[in-house]
Structure formats: structure tokens, C-alpha cells
């Protein structure tokens, strides 16, 4: 909950209410409250805005909060897996087109008796 404490501390230093901060970040007041209490985290766009608004590096916002670091780690199981056949077609598609054109050319050449 380090991030929440930092947001609250920086907000209060600037004599901002949760409502004022929420308006600045284009979120509702409840979102700011959840960030400050550690029940939710801002998305990456909001983290960047917070970093710029409070003149605090993203590194210092993220590094000290283990919960946020865990949330940022990409869970491979939630990514859309690429199918082997589709990936193969995508990566070798241009070679297949060249091969097909070459084969058609050879067939036509043979038929017309070059």
C-alpha cells in the first residue's frame, strides 16, 4: 500500500481534495479513495499522470509497492495464444506466395512447351 500512502501524502501537500485530484485525473473520487486505501491501483495512464502531477518518477511510484509490481507482471495465461499454423503462415507467407508463383510458372512453361 506504499503507492496509496504516497498519493495521499502528495495530494495533501498540495492541499488537494480527493475530488480535485479525481477531476484532474478524469476519474471519480471513489477511485482516488481506493488507490489511497490500497484496495485498487491506478492504470498505467493514471500512473503517468500522477507521476507528472506530483513530479515523482514512475520508478519511485512502482518500485516500493510490491502489490503493484505483482499486478504489473504479465500473466501469460491471459494473453491470446498464437496458433502454430497461423503464426507459420504469417511468418512464411511471402515465401509461400513466391513458391506458388514459381510452380505455376513452371507448369505453364511445360504446358506451352517452352
From TrEMBL:
Gene3D superfamilies tied to this protein: lambda repressor-like DNA-binding domains
Regions crossing the membrane: 92-112
UniProt xrefs under SUPFAM superfamilies: lambda repressor-like DNA-binding domains (SSF47413)
CDD domains for the chain: HTH_XRE (cd00093)
Keywords: DNA-binding, Membrane, Transmembrane, Transmembrane helix
Cross-referenced InterPro entries: Cro/C1-type_HTH, Lambda_DNA-bd_dom_sf
SMART domains registered for this protein in UniProt: HTH_XRE (SM00530)
Protein name per Swiss-Prot or TrEMBL: HTH cro/C1-type domain-containing protein
Protein source organism: Liquorilactobacillus oeni DSM 19972
Amino acid at each position: 500500500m506504499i503507492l496509496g500512502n504516497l498519493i495521499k501524502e502528495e495530494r495533501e501537500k498540495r492541499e488537494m481534495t480527493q475530488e480535485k485530484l479525481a477531476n484532474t485525473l478524469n476519474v471519480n473520487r471513489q477511485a482516488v479513495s481506493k488507490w489511497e486505501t490500497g484496495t485498487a491501483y491506478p492504470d498505467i495512464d493514471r500512473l503517468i499522470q500522477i507521476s507528472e502531477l506530483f513530479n515523482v518518477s514512475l520508478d519511485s511510484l512502482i518500485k516500493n509497492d510490491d502489490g503493484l509490481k505483482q499486478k504489473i507482471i504479465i500473466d501469460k495465461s491471459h494473453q491470446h495464444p498464437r496458433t502454430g499454423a497461423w503464426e507459420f503462415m504469417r511468418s512464411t507467407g511471402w515465401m509461400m506466395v513466391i513458391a506458388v508463383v514459381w510452380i505455376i510458372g513452371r507448369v505453364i512453361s511445360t504446358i506451352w512447351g517452352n
